[in-house]
Amino acid sequence: MVADPCEVMEWVIVQEASQLQVQADDEVVAEARAIAETEQQRTRLRDRLMAARGQVIRIDVPGEILRGVVVDVGADIVVMESADSRIVVSIAAAASIEGLPRALRREEGVSHRVFTTWSAILREYMDAVRVRFTMADGRHLHAIVESVGADHVDIRHVDATCQTLPFAAIRSAEISR
Q: What is the pTM for the complete model shown?
């Protein structure tokens, strides 16, 4: 049985078109993968923390696991809310973080001015509540915030002794409600 030459030609064209489409699809996928990898290399941890606003994350700092809903992110801190406290964590103190979205950084509407700082957060609680500070060396200090400087906080203990804590030495601060 001899095949119709038009049918054969149509079949050949369909096969060639299919091959071209597969090659084009592979090229598009490879290009999309390259773009995604490049964008991921540009993504900073702060960007991913900002994308996690409103979500529960877990931050492991040496000797402690902190969990809460991300409410704000500063240049060097993340502020979370748990059921009974506000938790401020030094990003540099984090050994690992769980629950961050894989979202790419958002370019539009992102301000490069950062207002959330240790100073701003701790000033809200001056002379108000006891704060549990976890220090870089693992110690826990429970005290009242007496005054706040640009790079340090003065705290007052129950026995009325005062102490100055450089922000760089604070791993986290838990502020009970």
A: 0.71
Q: Is residue 92's pLDDT more than 70?
A: yes
75: three-class secondary structure by DSSP: coil
> Under a CB-based contact definition with an 8 Å cutoff, are residues 161 and 141 in contact?
no
Distance CA 68, CA 81 (A): 5
Structure tokens given for 39: 């964008």
Distance between CA atoms of residues 33 and 23, nearest Å: 15
Q: List the one residue out of 44, 60, 118 whose CA is nearest residue 93.
A: 60
DSSP conformation class of 24: H
Q: Is 154 exposed, middle or buried (0-12, 13-18, 19+ CB in 10 A)?
A: middle
**Distance from C-alpha of 88 to C-alpha of 81, rounded to nearest angstrom:** 9
pLDDT of residue 16: 81
Rounded CA separation 117/94 (Å): 17
> What average pLDDT does this structure show over 84-89?
96
4: helix, strand or coil: coil
CA separation for the pair 153, 163 (Å, rounded): 8
Q: Which residue has the tokens 């009325």?
A: 160
